Amino acid sequence: MGSYIDESEFVILEDDITVRKFIGQKIDEQLERLLADLLSFSSVLFSHWLVLCSGSEWRLFNGVFLMGPLDLFLKSEVLNPHTAIAGCNMDAGTSGSKEGMRSPKRACKHEDNCRGREGHKYAATNRYPSPTDITSRDWDNTDAFFVADLGDLVEQHLRWERALPRVKPFYAVKCNSSKTVLQILAEMGMGFDCASKNEIALIRDIGVPAERIIYANPCKESSHIKYAASCGVQIMTFDNEDELSKVAMNHPTAKLILRIATDDSTSFCHLSEKFGASISECNHLMECVKALNLDIIGVSFHVGSGCTDSKIFARAIEDARTVFDIGIHLGFRMDVLDIGGGFPQAGNDSLTFEEVTAVINPALDIYFPEENGVKIIAEPGCYYVASTFTLAVNIIARKIIRKAQSHSNGEEAENDKIIYYINDGLYGSFDIFCQFHNLLKPILYKEDSLDQKLYTTRVWGPTCDSFDHISDLWKLPELKIGDWLLFKNTGAYTLSTLTTFNGFHGPTTHYVISKKAW
Fold this sequence. Notes:
With 518 residues, the chain is α/β, with parallel strands linked by helices. It has helices at residues 29-39, 42-45, 98-101, 131-135, 150-163, 179-187, 197-205, 222-231, 241-250, 279-291, 311-329, 353-367, 382-385; strands at residues 10-13, 50-53, 58-61, 64-67, 145-149, 167-172, 191-194, 213-215, 235-238, 255-259, 295-300, 336-338, 375-378, 389-401, 404-406, 412-414, 417-422, 442-444, 455-460, 469-471, 475-476, 484-487, 508-514. The longest helix is centred in the middle third of the chain and has 19 residues, at 311-329.
């Protein structure tokens, strides 16, 4: 597996905003400010330690050394603040015993320096855990968990700016509403696409000004429109006449964007079945806007999640130009184009982000040339967060079904099937993969399993519902209870759709960042 790196090769960001840096290391000032701001939110965002390691193949999270991009997780479990290491006994009545380590209700004898579950420090020895400390522990926690590489989030944003320099992203909060993710995106200057009162409140609570929010839900609850008005959120979408009446009553100063339907037949999610006005309806809707003394400032569209045909973007941009001209003819100042979402995410083999942007940029130059002064925005979600998160799940039970089949020579041979039960499922992180089976590809953690015989498998989630069925498609070796499966590209519509059905809570998330991104 490789050797452990020396302690001097990593940086620890503590929850009290102390930063130990490499001697002589030159850190980009913008990223330094970004992370310093993040640390100021540490009581909410970083309840554990965030550690930056040298080398792109190394990570250290919550005090645990992990080796290689897929070894992200499992050499040891996460450093629990109620685990006694380096002389700090979390239980005042024990000396680092297991009973003491697992008694969170009993007071730590270093009460002045330790903070319980929110940022435990090694007060007794005033040092950080060494690799020897970490690997000597007996870790037995098998709960499912995410590891989020914040450096990947930053890199996705830089990639966006290179590929779509004219388009300002308004991140779709519904995709992944982790406060850590939102705060990083906010610090990088992004806008936010909110669809409800609670999403608006979430973004306002982290200090994002109202002008960086678009209320991009064409069919809104009246009380939510009123709340948006009270928060100063002006820009919102609509696609029907009744919606205009609600806006006129609850937010008459709103700046409206007309959402149009697109041809999303080649996308996995056909959003135009639910939202979007046809081109033939647009003139009438704009006349209604005028009659109600409201203001319309632009046009939006969404090609559907999981778009597989980049030409759809070009046709939608052309349609938007037609609607723009209708608005200008009616006397509106049309100066915002919202090209929506549907951008390829990591793991999508049918289309790359750069292939899509190679179509979008020329279309924008033709129909919305830069000299016209139109502000171009978009609503990416999966593009930003899918590849940032990796999920680790544990096999909690299994059944081996022995079947006898006859060969043509009359001999019988075993054709076994294995049923696995894992500790996350469709009521947890796997809900979205009911629609996107092609994006769900398990990675085996066990090294010695790579050359083993593969079996037909059926994989179930942990609940008692038969709907909680994850896959019949994977060929896997014979794995044991306690083994791990890893799933990359699981940052989109996983944390945000978790339920507590049957009393199962979703995976915890641990945040890491590479030296390169730091």
